[in-house]
């Protein structure tokens, strides 16, 4: 009887583009099935999130919504807003927050003026490279003050913030709290977000 070597499952690879040659405006006009998508140099990449990814986003969103509702002038938070980087590049971050002066006045339809001040991306194996390299550089370039990468595999978070002397980074362990000088009084333990 012939023996065959066991096969190994290859690591997940970044998804290939679904469409090419798109502008940012064309990207925004795509039908709803293209949620959880990014536009990179005219190429559309779609990456449906896993259940744990969705749970992390839901838990953090709930914490941020509660924080914004607990005081005046705390801005607004939303999920998957379109954030344009250039004419053919933009992303749909998992969560974004804007300072109060960038939000539409009370009583008017929700709207935001300019890029978000804080962006959150929950890392997935298939998009880790895009998130931690390209997005890490692109978001600060358009004026995003702070970027949180939440890493379910490493049970940690990585904060990238802009300062006059360049980007500064901070690693946050599972038993530590995600905090920001942008969000006075806000804090949530990383481990509480990524619990399985």
Structural class call reads alpha+beta
> What composes the largest sheet?
6 strands, mixed
**Biggest sheet, strands in spatial order?**
3-6-7-8-9-10
Number of helices: 4
First CA to last CA: what distance? 43 Å
What is the helix content? 10-25%
> Tally of extended strands?
12
Strand content: 25-35%
Order of helices and strands: HEEHEEEEEHEEEEEH
Shape: globular
Give Rg in angstroms: 18 Å
Q: pLDDT below 50 for ≥5 consecutive residues: which ranges?
A: 1-13
Q: Averaged pLDDT, please?
A: 89
Key terms:
196 residues, alpha+beta, 6-stranded mixed beta sheet, two-stranded antiparallel ribbon, 22% helix
Write a structural description.
The protein is α+β, with helices and mostly antiparallel strands. The chain contains four helices and twelve strands; from the N terminus they run αββαβββββαβββββα. Strands 3-6-7-8-9-10 form a six-stranded mixed sheet, with helices on both faces. A two-stranded antiparallel sheet has the order 1-2.
